[in-house]
Amino acid sequence: MLFGNLKVPSYICKSNTYYYAQHKLFGSMRHSLAYIHPDAKIGQNVTIEAFSYISGNVSIGDGTWIGPNVTVMDGAIIGKNCKIFPGAVIAGPPQDLKYQGEETTAIIGDNTVIRECVTVNKGTTESMKTQVGSNALIMAYVHIAHDCMVGNYCIIANAVQLGGHVIIDDHAIIGGTSAVHQFVKIGKHVMISGGSLVRKDVPPYIKAGREPLSYAGVNVIGLRRRGFDAPQIAEVQEVYRYFYQSGLNNTDALIAVEEVIQPSEARDEVLNFIRSSKRGIIRGATKIGASNDDV
């Protein structure tokens, strides 16, 4: 059969417009104009659209859709029922001068959506992997650098740029065009304003905004949506009063919270995060026009 000047065998033609070759072993559907290395491990009911490139050392889980013009390079491990949109590059080599071609991975969890032109670099020998969790939404033009760890149910909005070794815990939301410094950690249920420069760690359950990035209260609406009840939210608010409204430094606030507030999952999550922070946590609210001594 002839499509324009291109001869296509009739047995791979599915309609007058699209023509697919059936992957006989796994039952996946791939466009005849996609390149799939014969060593790639493709699950059942996977669709791979035209002009996408799948390298050999790749695993793609059942039910995943790979859109047109997607590049999936060696080291990619993609879960089930993912959707990867045009222009995305998964498991590109790390942008790290220390990387010498070691065999590392980039892992995408189940049910995650990767939108247009997202880049997810694979890990270096530091951790051997970059990982995006399950049920995450990574919007267009996001860059996830080597050795980053993004949790489950995270939303990273358009054009966010993550430096290397960034850790983002479950249910965090990062506003569009924000830039996150390498080695920063962002806690659970955090919401960060769009256009933020994130230079220090952001502890769990809070909102953060302004410049320099500052504490903007507890993420009450987000916590309610995640099933936190009023007493749990009030407890989180009480914990943060010691860190951001009492005038105590972080060391004294840690001691005060442990002495006054009974142990709980939320309290301990905050204390463990702050105690283990290597870059220090963001500061309390600052006056507009204050000098940026937060770096």
Q: Which class do the helix and strand fractions yield?
A: alpha/beta
Low-confidence stretches: 1-26, 291-295
**With helices defined by DSSP (H or I, 4 residues minimum), what is the helix count?**
4
CATH superfamily membership of the domain at 2-165, which one?
Answer: Hexapeptide repeat proteins
Mean pLDDT: 90
The CATH architecture name of the domain at 2-165 reads: 3 Solenoid
Biggest sheet layout: 12 strands, mixed
Indicate the CATH topology of the domain at 2-165: UDP N-Acetylglucosamine Acyltransferase, domain 1
CATH class of the domain at 2-165 reads Mainly Beta
* Rg estimate, integer Å: 23 Å
Describe what this molecule looks like in 3D.
- This protein has helices at residues 220-225, 230-244, 250-260, 265-276; strands at 2-3, 6-7, 20-22, 29-31, 35-36, 41-42, 47-48, 53-54, 59-60, 65-66, 71-72, 76-78, 83-84, 89-92, 105-108, 113-114, 119-121, 129-132, 137-138, 143-144, 149-150, 155-156, 161-162, 167-168, 173-174, 179-180, 185-186, 191-192, 197-198, 206-209, 214-218.
- With 295 residues, the chain is an alpha/beta fold.
- The termini are far apart.
